[in-house]
Amino acid sequence: MIKHIPVLLKEAVELLNCKSGGVYVDCTVGAGGHAERLLELSSPDGIVIGIDQDDEILKIAEERLKRFGDRIRLIHGNFSDIKGIMKDERADAILFDLGASSYQLLDKERGFSFMYDAPLDMRMDKKAETTAADIVNKLSERELSELIFKYGEERFAKRIASFIVKEREKNPIATTLQLSDIVKKAIPARFHPRDIHPATRTFQALRIAVNRELDVLEKGLLDAIEILRPNGRVCAISFHSLEDRIVKRTFQRLAKGCICPPKIPVCQCGIKPSIKIITKKPVTPDEKEIKDNPRARSAKLRAAERLQV
Ligand SMILES: C[S@@+](CC[C@H](N)C(=O)[O-])C[C@H]1O[C@@H](n2cnc3c(N)ncnc32)[C@H](O)[C@@H]1O
Predict the structure, then answer these.
(1) Cβ(51) to ligand 1 under 6 A?
(2) Which atom number of ligand 1 is nearest to the Cα of residue 217?
(3) For the segment 74-133, what is each residue's pLDDT rounded down to a tens digit?
(4) Which atom of ligand 1 is nearest to the CA of 36?
(5) CA of 112 to the centre of ligand 1 (A)
(6) Where are the alpha helices (DSSP H) in the chain?
(7) Which has the closest alpha carbon to 176: 213, 133, 147, 141?
(8) How far is the CA of 180 from the centre of ligand 1 (A)?
(9) In angstroms, rounded to a whole number, what is the distance separating the alpha carbons of residues 35 and 100?
């Protein structure tokens, strides 16, 4: 049976300052691991609004969280639309636990994993137009190579792209196993990583691209911070260096405020800091958490507090 262990659970909920009566938004509710803890800590009357773009995973969250009755509201949507979802409602704290859930990664039919042969899909939101097969079959060799290098941090990206293009000239690439075999062949055996499957990085790159994971992050964070009450907190847990960079830079920009060039002695722009950064350095899992849940190994948590503006 698939199980998703929430990452940095204790640290995240502590930083979110959860109290009874508060309104909390879990922007990536998944199977509801963090949301469950938020509901427990905000009892008896705190509200949790759980957003996810995957309606299948929301069914798991619904089952898990049903004992909280109307204190949990689950919404199928993208967190980049958090303002539309919340309308005029304000939040006391907002959580982003980015990336994919084990329920998605280990699903035998959804094409996220090289472990099961399935159509090369990888869409978290089934209504999205582009699948991983579309990307693999339609992008130019150069675009594919850049994508695999950037999102997968894969040093053999060029060779993998070239092998993909040669293969798809014979037959379109339609399944996970087809793709993982191509990647395995493209990376010389002596360079196959010891601790992960050779196709891990390529599959990660495609998942990030299909779900536009990095494209929506900055907007999601900015809009989330806008709907926070003064002293409300935002926490983001990232699993990829590019993701963490977006979180870090967005927080730094809002904490700085003024955007005048350094040469100007007196601020002309009038932009004031809107947040205070709580985690000077990102919080990372300890050895025990990584041992119990290897998926946590690359996690970084950053938190900030909304100022009275
Ligand atoms: C790491 S999982 C969250 C796990 C959850 N915290 C738990 O403990 O069960 C990330 C979830 O975010 C969802 N997701 C990713 N990007 C999203 C976006 N832009 N908008 C809404 N949901 C998103 C995925 O579908 C996935 O279910």
Answers:
(1) yes
(2) 19
(3) 999 999 999 999 998 999 999 999 999 999 999 999 999 999 999 999 999 999 999 999
(4) 8
(5) 14
(6) 9-15, 33-41, 55-65, 82-86, 102-105, 132-138, 141-152, 157-170, 176-186, 200-210, 217-226, 241-256, 287-292
(7) 133
(8) 25
(9) 16
C-alpha 57 to ligand 1 mean position (Å): 9
Cβ of residue 53 lying under 6 Å from some atom of ligand 1: yes
In this predicted structure, what is the pLDDT of residue 193? 85
- Superfamily (CATH H level) for 107-210: Putative methyltransferase TM0872, insert domain (1.10.150.170)
Tell me, in angstroms, the distance from the centre of ligand 1 to residue 30's CA.
Answer: 5
> Counting atoms of ligand 1 from 1, which one is nearest the CA of 95?
6
- Tell me which residue has tokens 């619904």: 62
pLDDT of residue 34: 98
Kindly report the pTM of this predicted structure: 0.95
Sorted by where each begins, the domain ranges of the chain are 9-99+214-306, 107-210
CATH class of 9-99+214-306: alpha beta
Q: pLDDT tens, 256-298?
A: 999 999 888 889 999 999 999 999 999 999 999 999 998 899 9
Residue 17 pLDDT exceeds 90: yes
